[in-house]
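Late entry, evening session. Most of the bench is empty. Finally got around to the prediction I had been postponing all week. Sequence below, unchanged from the version circulated by S.P.
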Amino acid sequence: MKCDCHIHIFMDGQNYQKARGRHQSKVDDSCIREHLQEYQKRGITWLRDGGDFLGVSLRTCQLAPEYNITYRTPVFAIHKKGHYGSIVGKAFTDLKEYAALVKEVRRLGGNFIKIMTTGIMDFGHAGTITGERLPYCEVKEMVHIAHEEGFSVMSHTNGADAVREAALAGVDSLEHGNFQNDDSLQALRDSRTVWVPTLVTVRNLSGKERFPDEEIDKIRKTQEYAVKKAYEYGIPMASGTDAGAWMVFHGESLEQEYQGFASILGSRERAEICLEQGNARIRIRF
């Protein structure tokens, strides 16, 4: 079974504002169908979305069965006000508001909770994460609240310290996880967390002249090193592309993700075995 465990169905891989605009007044079914057709054409039958604030992923839940696709969504991602995340979700100011958003996900029929514990990479400056990460005590309570409601937790997290803390807090899957070190990898090894490295979000930027290639190359190499170490540690990893992000196109990017893993791990067969273990765990939990 081919799985893409991290997509954004409302984005198009080219222009966020234009993609968002297509759904601003009303969800555009033609856009959703266009993307689902791409997955169907490539035999991709299991998708996990990262959420949006426009209702697009909710509508996709209704359309995906027509394409024989199993589709999972958090409805929207949840971020702390003033921190990164408004691009894909809703904000809270305190844990009471966070708990209310978790209950809203349940009311709307969401399948899991997605939280944002850090910002994103500064693609122009390797090793730099935008914004300030959430404190461990807060992340731990967010995970606890979601688990108490019966939800698994998908965590957008970058940076070694934040990855270590997310793993210790008990997130079920960790997305991106750039700029790791041995401490963060050991925390993942000792946890039940599945890591979704989304390699193509960086690899597909090379040569595009939007960011300095030397910085993109540095970011790519740090992630490749971490993936290699994670494989040696036996950390479960899953295939997720962040499809919809700039230069990460729906459908075709999954093959690129597998190629990335194959180049890091030395063979396509090794990559497929490694990723299928993580994919299976995510399918079971989410």
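Two things to note before I forget:
Residues 213-233 form the longest helix (21 residues).
The CA atoms of residues 34 and 250 lie 9 Å apart.
Will write this up properly tomorrow.
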